Amino acid sequence: xxxxxxxxxxxxxxxxxxxxxxxxxxxxxxxxxxxxxxxxxxxxxxxxxxxxxxxxxxxxxxxxxxxxxxxxxxxxxxxxxxxxxxxxxxxxxxxxxxxxxxxxxxxxxxxxxxxxxxxxxxxxxxxxxxxxxxxxxxxxxxxxxxxxxxxxxxxxxxxxxxxxxxxxxxxxxxxxxxxxxxxxxxxxxxxxxxxxxxxxxxxxxxxxxxxxxxxxxxxxxxxxxxxxxxxxxxxxxxxxxxxxxxxxxxxxxxxxxxxxxxxxxxxxxxxxxxxxxxxxxxxxxxxxxxxxxxxxxxxxxxxxxxxxxxxxxxxxxxxxxxxxxxxxxxxxxxxxxxxxxxxxxxxxxxxxxxxxxxxxxxxxxxxxx
Length: 369
Ligand code: F6R
Hints:
Residues 42-181, 214-359 form the SIS domain. It comes from Streptomyces pratens. Its EC number is 2.6.1.16. It catalyses: D-fructose 6-phosphate + L-glutamine = D-glucosamine 6-phosphate + L-glutamate. The active site is at 364 (for fru-6p isomerization activity). 44% of the residues lie in helices and 15% in strands. Helix 12 links the parallel strand 6 and strand 7. The strands form two sheets. The protein has a five-stranded parallel beta sheet with strand order 2-1-3-4-5, with helices on both faces. It has a five-stranded parallel beta sheet with strand order 7-6-8-9-10, with helices on both faces. By secondary structure, the protein is α/β, with parallel strands linked by helices. Helix 4 (58-75) packs parallel to helix 8. The two termini are 32 Å apart. It has 14 helices and ten strands. The chain is globular and about 55 Å long.
């Protein structure tokens, strides 16, 4: 049942190109426009929405953080992302013009369920993004967009995360289409980029041997830090979460710009720091900023593990280890930059003798608050 892999996690990492492609299937019409009729929220309600609130936990929360960048950029609707476990305890402002998006792989996470129940009681509309047909979260929501990752068995979420991102991009583009905040040809261009991502993920997977080698070499370390900016920041958080849960290691993700406000004090000789570098094309300011962040930590002795786009020559002098990913538009980059971090955590945990499918103290779905 593991299809020749030694763990479900490795199998599920390998299934990601297929999972991404399947989640797009049937959701784009012949003209390249979004056709999300399955989202049964009337277009009028989507046009009238004045705020999007995303609630989720763990890895699904990281998908939500990334979705915020896409939703606000493409639709200009303000979007908040909140941990489901915090949401209802702070008396959030919700009304019928609020579109709540609840993201959950299992559809049974109690914190997420309680958050969406609270939102519906306040009159908000809830759209679920979920991987499990007929589970509680979609049943209790107004509408659902299923991710087609297929069953995820390993406790650590991998392919579900990538498909949650795809579903979020689809919802964001659909909102832009319905509200007319983007021209049809702009939407088509993004859809084309999305459609070619499965191939890029496949290419990343073909080049992971150096990442596995590096993970084994770092298996004795106590701490690994992760840095990113813009959508690379949630990717850094996700990389750190994977390492915590699988390798039982101290790992933290930071927004690279926050370094100087405290975390840079952690940098010491030979401390591994993974840096997720944004594309040098497009938002090049971000690229310049992160280059100087890498220089700062390297000057203080950090061992830099740099994830950067192919052809990004500027990072080369600052990378002790360089991991290339295919060129991808900035907003979609998490679909490719997350993959090496999953492989890194899985291999490092295995080198430490941990059981990757069943990390200690964790359950696949958390049905208690
Ligand atoms: C991390 C992980 C968890 C889940 C979280 C939410 O690898 O798997 O952080 O993402 O418990 O679970 P779902 O998506 O089922 O609501």
